[in-house]
Amino acid sequence: MTPWLLAAGSGLALFAASSPVSCWPLVFVALAPLLYAARGAKDARQAANLGAVAGLCFYVPALHWLTKVCSWAAGPFWCLFALWVAFFAASYRELVVRTEKRRWAPAAETLGAAALWIAFEYFRSEVWRLECSWLALGYALKPFPPLLQGASLLGVYGLSGLIVFANAAWVAALSGRRGPAIAITAAVISLGLWGGRRLERIDAGGGRRVAAALVQDENFDVDKLIKATPVSEVRGGLWVWPEYGFTAITGHERAQIQSIAKRLGGPASTLVAGGATIPDETTGRLENFAWVIGEGRLLGRYDKSHPIPFIEDKHLRPNPAPRPVDSPLGRLGVLLCYDLDFEDSARLMASFGAEALVVPNLDPREWGPWQHRQHSDMAPLRAVETGLWIARAASSGHSQLIDPGGRVRAESSFGAESVLTGDLEFARASTVYTRIGWLLAPVCLALAGAFLVWAAAARFGKIDLK
Known about the structure:
The protein is α/β, with parallel strands linked by helices. It has helices at residues 2-17, 32-39, 44-62, 66-70, 74-99, 105-127, 145-148, 151-174, 179-203, 222-228, 253-263, 343-351, 369-376, 379-386, 432-435, 440-459, and strands at residues 208-216, 238-240, 246-247, 270-277, 287-294, 297-303, 325-327, 330-334, 356-361, 390-394, 400-402, 408-411, 418-426.
């Protein structure tokens, strides 16, 4: 029973380390029991089963709110999440078997474990059709900004790899191979010190400061949104409405835009308004977009890039070429809700010269505070990866203003109809991650694929690895 208890313990520790429980230091040891059990598994199948146990003990309690979103289908989704942990555990066991007698085994096991985890996490998050980046390990570091700054170098997947390397290093140390443990200890300390200095530089500012008002409302009524917008309090700044905030009238969009601009005081501020065109019997097509309205006219429109699987993707055509929108305030990198869950959407906006990320968001109140907390805790990683401020207006919480260090400068509470006001800074930014660091995950995916082909060929006697 001991291996199964170790696997279950890993899953429960991962649950405790992740949002919203957020005992983040646990993440640096949480996987070690599973890795230890997988090393001793009699074969890859047993290692996979151990991984599945760990995955279920992690994802079932962490994603219990899926029952509110998809009812009975929550079970298959939990199993899909756990499947990737099973693949990882089986692959890690094969890595140990193939390298244990070699001089460089400690480095291969620890670096290889990190690369395998990155590969599987990246694939399930952004590559296959059911893309979902929820609870990537790197998000667990959100409560500790100094370590979070590592995302400006290698992104959330790089942080996940660092965490897995640490866990694999402790397991290697149990067999007397302490080199990786010493290396990861030095790396984490150095990253924390460097991250602290980066946060100090961010505190120095330097961008153009703009007043912002984020309207949090789930009535889906344009009249109520206009009434809630603080026109007199925030003038010459930025107003943001939530995703699906109102329904556009097909064929009358221009008149609707002019009406909104007039009722809000003409050119006083720039409005990013999340709207939708609901499918009808003629087109059967959903449009989920944000209008950028300023100077009394439409300045630009952004359409969603990542439709939610099983909810939007049947009717919504993804935006093939998202670009920032120029406004009197600066270049706005507009994203919609689920888009912010993926590194590519924010990264591309930064690479095209966005000076701030503005995100209308919809998380229905009925999904509960647990879901809202997990979702809002993902946004700070995008700020660190891109080096940009984020203004995120959520329909029922948590609306946020986030600085480039991933620190939430202002946040609304869950479920309240409110207006969050504060300052947002506009500035061009470039990070190591947006320039080259984002390649880490695709490279790890390619390496993991090559290793699995190599291991499969050896298992079936096609090649001799000795």
